[in-house]
Design a protein that fits this description.
Layout: H1 9-27, H2 31-56, H3 59-78, H4 82-89, H5 93-100, H6 108-117, H7 122-132
Helix pairs in contact: 2-3, 2-5, 4-5, 4-6, 6-7
Length: 148
């Protein structure tokens, strides 16, 4: 009869270190960040709902979902957190979370601040305004966080 293979100490330590790292990551999240992560996980449902509403004629709600999805994609591509972008734009983190989830539709001036916070080009800012249903973008000034 053969003995079951023994797991090496090194393999066991590596697995435990990976698990400890995951625990540390979760433990360092603030309540707001955790809420936003939950909202981001729900955002696919909001996007699907926006598409359904678009098909049924509720254009305002559909714009809110697509604007949020567009902003979230640009933020993730830039590799920045919701907290950082909200701070740069001078808005509350929860409000940005709701925008990205399609629960809120921002006013034009908020979009201008978000465009600056994300360092969008003029073309990207114009695209954002179009997605949000506002037409041509105004000039995007750098956000407050980037000033001298």
């Amino acid at each position: 009869m053969t003995a079951p293979p023994l797991v090496s100490v090194t393999e066991t330590v590596e697995v435990l270190l990976e698990q400890l790292d995951m625990i540390r990551q979760v433990a360092t999240l603030t309540a707001v960040e955790m809420a936003c992560l939950i909202e981001e996980n729900r955002s696919l449902r909001a996007e699907n709902a926006a598409l359904r509403m678009s098909a049924s004629g509720d254009a305002a709600q559909a714009r809110a979902g697509s604007t949020g999805a567009w902003l979230r994609a640009k933020r993730r591509a830039a590799g920045v957190t919701q907290t950082l972008v909200a701070s740069r734009a001078g808005i509350d983190n929860t409000y940005l979370c709701h925008i990205e989830s399609g629960l809120r539709h921002p006013k034009r001036n908020v979009l201008v601040e978000l465009a600056g916070a994300l360092r969008l080009t003029e073309d990207e800012a114009t695209e954002l305004m179009g997605v949000a249903g506002y037409g041509v973008a105004v000039s995007v000034a750098p956000s407050r966080a980037w000033e001298g």
